[in-house]
Amino acid sequence: LTFHAQTSAASLKQHPWKVATHRFRSEPFHRPASGPLLVGVATGLCMAGRRKSTCMWRPRTGGQFRRRRRAIPSDADIDFMPADVVTPANLAVFTFRNFAAGAFLGHGCVLSAMNVFGVFEGYGDHLQTSLVLASLNVFASLWQLARGGLDTSRPGMAGERRIVEVSVLWLLAIVWLCTRLRFGHLFPAEVAPLDLAGCCFCITSFMMMCLGPWITALWEELSEAEQKQLDGLKICGALGMLYCFDAVTLAAKGAAWWERVCGIWPQQAVLEPTTLLFGALALEACLFIHRLGGAGVMPDPQTRERWGIASSVGLTVLPTCAQIFWNADAISLSEFYLL
Question: Which of 98, 102, 126, 125 lies closest to 319 in space, CA to CA?
Fold first, then answer.
């Protein structure tokens, strides 16, 4: 027995791990007295695993996507849109204002093509139709102002509401002056004293459109898109200043002056209203492109600038030069102001 004990002690010295095993077997095992604690821990782990599984397999709903999409700012200055973001067509494009502008611009393309190719059969009817569509755009702009909801956060002519206010005055002046010069012979003599008030209104509106973009560009800090938009309005304002010559001369010399002009140059009664409507087409194209940019259809400012230049050349500059070319013998460019 003594030999066996000595052998066991020597074996434990050579293998230390057997000491721990011998001690664990020799000491009694005490069960934890808090059995319910283990049950609670096990239940908590099961519940935590169930919540994790539920969050993992719950599908995404459309409402979360819509909330994320509405968080993206609908700004016309966004130059880049991630390819994985798919947004539906903006219903703000299909408005009465855009439909009226689209009809006016569509017919303006027909009117411009007739001038470019020298086709003047039934031109008077097309001129009247264009004048009616321009008047429709005046009422559409007034309706847009009455409904409200236009942006007023930007200063001066950079604000959407101020642009609409000034442009509707400019367009109304174009419509009145065009009607007066094209159908002046149909007006009764009692209306002649109102020419002075109408001409003063035209001059004021043309001056507002000319000076407004320049003042805003000089005194306010603008984004790149707003700068390009104001450049287009500056061009329209410059055209309006050319129309001021007609308004000033009519106010100074009266209706008899215009009767003398039409007697000497009969085609002048067609040229002047046509150039007025071409200026209105340039402005409407600029505003239409701006609204498309705000709706997200044309978000790139450079793209809007290219379309604005193309529309101004195609709807205003080119057809005006073509009409002067085709009717050079029946019109006057500057002499009629001195008549």
Answer: 126
